[in-house]
């Protein structure tokens, strides 16, 4: 992955977006949505899932609570 990113950087064609199905579990996919969108997702999550059921009890995926700077 590092080689691919370096090649993209060298060619000037890097794009920070990571398609969810191609992402590594260690990558912060939600961070690529931008700060405003992450804040909106956190707000909606807090409104409709105040107990954090989908953030704590659903395995797999990229939980908003685990995304850097989510505020949850």
Model description:
- The protein is built from 3 helices and no strands.
- By secondary structure, the chain is mainly alpha-helical.
- It has one domain.
- The model has no long low-confidence stretch (mean pLDDT 81).
Summarize the entry for a quick read.
The chain is built from three helices and no strands. By secondary structure, the protein is mainly α.
Which helices and strands occur, and which strands form pairs?
Layout (H helix, E strand, L loop, with lengths): L1 H10 L23 H14 L4 H4 L16
Q: Cα distance, first to last residue?
A: 29 Å
What is the tally of helical segments? 3
Class inferred from helices and paired strands: mainly alpha
Q: Detail the poorly predicted runs.
A: none
Mean pLDDT: 81
Oligomer: single chain
Report the order of strands and helices: HHH
Helix proportion of residues, in percent?
A: 25-40%
Label the overall shape. Answer: elongated
Task: Describe the largest sheet.
Answer: none
Number of strands: 0
Number of domains: 1
| Strand proportion | under 5%
How large, in whole angstroms, is the Cα Rg?
14 Å
């Amino acid at each position: 992955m590092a080689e691919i990113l370096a090649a993209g950087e060298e060619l000037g064609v890097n794009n920070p977006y990571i398609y969810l199905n191609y992402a590594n579990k260690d990558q912060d996919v939600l961070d690529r949505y931008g700060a405003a969108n992450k804040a909106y997702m956190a707000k909606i999550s807090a409104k409709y899932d105040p107990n954090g059921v989908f953030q704590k009890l659903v395995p797999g995926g990229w939980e908003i609570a685990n995304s850097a700077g989510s505020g949850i």
